[in-house]
Write a structure and sequence with these properties.
The protein is built from two helices and no strands. With 66 residues, the chain is an all-alpha fold. The chain has a domain at 1-30. The longest helix is centred in the N-terminal third of the chain and has 27 residues, at 2-28. The model has no long low-confidence stretch (mean pLDDT 74).
Length: 66
């Protein structure tokens, strides 16, 4: 019984490793950095992340929150 568990775990580890390597290869093949629409840069970019933009909505929120 312990041998069957051990062989199952070995097979599962091999299948998981192959699947992970395949998904990494698939995502790396695109070669493009993706950008989100809210101003935060995603990928290998030297640009500074913009986490906050001063808007009327944020001013209203801060006035009511404090």
């Amino acid at each position: 019984m312990a041998e069957t568990r051990r062989s199952f775990l070995k097979k599962a580890a091999v299948v998981g490793t192959v699947a992970a390597a395949g998904s990494i290869a698939a995502t790396a093949s695109t070669g493009e950095a993706s950008y989100s629409s809210n101003g935060v840069v995603v990928g290998k970019s030297p640009k500074k992340e913009i986490l906050y933009k001063k808007t009327k909505a944020w001013d209203d929120f801060y006035r009511t929150a404090l």
